[in-house]
Amino acid sequence: MIHVLLAEEREMIRGALLALLAQESDIKTVADLGQSRDILPASRLHRPDVAVIDMGMLSSDGLSLTQTIHDELPETRTLILANCRRPGVVRQALNIGVAGFLHKYSPPDKLVSAIRDLAAGRRVIDPDLAISAWQTPLPPLTERELEVLRFVATGETVPAIAARLNLSPGTVRNYLTTVESKLHARTRVDAVRIAADAGWL
Q1: Which of 15, 47, 117, 155 is the most exposed place for a label (fewest CB within 10 A)?
Q2: 124-125/100-103 β-pairing
Q3: What is the DSSP string of 128-141?
Q4: Does the pLDDT at position 60 exceed 50?
């Protein structure tokens, strides 16, 4: 029996995916989640064979989340339901050990096959996503710099970012200065635009 954790914030789509997986005699959904904050605790509790996560749930700390699952639960294979609009994120995730990427609008049978392949130890990468990912240059920013910039993109202030990341405001400002320098950006807003256009956010 393949134990699956399903994380999808849209209830209607999550319900459709649950109904799809329920038809398979060798697949059991052990957790279905609509909040990104529940993914890691549920993964630790249920230790699924495959964690199916919609990329839309991977916000500012999304890649660190998948990295933590990979490090703490090496037996859990992660399948990201993605799209081609964030090729930079896809490439970064591939580099940190995400086992599978499937286009979120793939036919249902592809999702079922991908889960079985991952559970068997194989890697599953949608060809279109792979091409988009490898044609996109890696960001010149560190993961921490990207994390700070993602918070800026959501409208967070420097003190708020500092509080969320347990850093001093001065350290956050230093990160932002470095980001602007690396991206040759005139302002923080310009840095966000450059990174978003490149698919890094």
Answers
A1: 155
A2: parallel
A3: HHHHHHHTSPPPSS
A4: no
Count CB atoms within 10 A of the CB of residue 53: 25
Residue bearing tokens 């490439």? 91
Residues 64-112: pLDDT tens digits? 788 889 889 999 999 999 876 566 667 667 777 788 989 888 899 999 9
Q: Where are the alpha helices (DSSP H) in the chain?
A: 11-22, 39-46, 62-72, 87-95, 108-119, 127-134, 143-153, 158-165, 169-183, 188-197
Q: Which amino acid is at 200?
A: W
Tell me, yes or no, if the pTM score tops 0.70. Answer: no
Distance CA 84, CA 103 (A): 8
Q: What is the mean pLDDT of residues 19-47?
A: 95
Q: With beta carbons less than 8 A apart as the criterion, state whether 117 and 90 touch.
A: no
Q: Which residues have CB under 8 Å from 19's CB, separation 6+?
A: none
* 79 neighbors 53 (Cβ within 8 angstroms): yes
Digit-coded pLDDT (tens) for 135-193:
666 778 888 999 999 999 999 999 999 999 999 999 999 999 999 999 999 999 999 98
Of 17, 16, 15, 67, give the one whose Cα is nearest residue 43. Answer: 67
User: Which token pair is 81?
Assistant: 């339901």
Distance CA(114)–CA(123), nearest Å, equals 8
Q: Per DSSP, which regions of 22-91 are E strands?
A: 27-33, 50-54, 77-82
